[in-house]
Amino acid sequence: MRDISDQIHSFLAATTEAATILSRIPEEVREALVIVLDVDEQFDLLDRDLKTDEIVSLLAHFSFAKPTLLAQVEFSESIIPDGVPIRLVEALAKHRNEIWLVHLNDADPFPSNPHAHNKENGLKLHLGTGDLYRKRDFVGKVRWKDLLAIREKLPSVSLPSLGEQNVG
């Protein structure tokens, strides 16, 4: 196995060269790879030993268009139920307020279209059922009244139909 510094150097060189071919900046290419390869962060790509031509092929049809923010919803207290794992880094910040972001033209319509993102905790919220996901893994549900409160703050957004009322 190669040394980590060699992996980093190789990854940076390959993504920089791919960025030139794709007429993008290297950071956009690296962020797109995280999405396309469904990993948590760029660090997770280092051991894949991606070559420039592989990167270009993976991103040939990727839309680099940034999602348009439709709405931002803030709460004074957390609506994430106890027991749902949150990111340790964010837990150290000790912020109780949450911001849920809803984007138009999100590259990934999972778990609903549209859905809400809690970037601080790496969660996605199904706006029809209240289901919470990390990546594609179900991790819990928000309380029904919290789901309705979020939906009420999104009057200009076309939301998915409400699913069966969850308990909690």
Briefly say what this structure is.
This protein is an alpha+beta fold and 168 residues long. It has helices at residues 4-22, 26-36, 52-59, 88-93, 144-152; strands at residues 68-75, 98-104, 115-118, 123-126, 131-134, 137-141.
How would you characterize the overall build of this protein?
The protein is α+β, with helices and mostly antiparallel strands. It has five helices and six strands, in the order H-H-H-E-H-E-E-E-E-E-H.
Distinctive features:
168 residues; alpha+beta
Uncertain residue ranges: 88-96
Total number of strands: 6
- Give the rounded overall mean pLDDT: 83
| Helix-strand sequence | HHHEHEEEEEH
Helix content: 25-40%
End-to-end Cα distance: 48 Å
- How would you sum up the global shape? elongated
What's the story with the biggest beta sheet?
6 strands, antiparallel
Question: Which structural class do the helices and strands define?
Answer: alpha+beta
Task: Give the strand line-up of the largest sheet.
Answer: 1-2-3-4-5-6
What's the gyration radius in Å? 18 Å
State which percent range the strand residues make up: 15-25%
Number of helices: 5
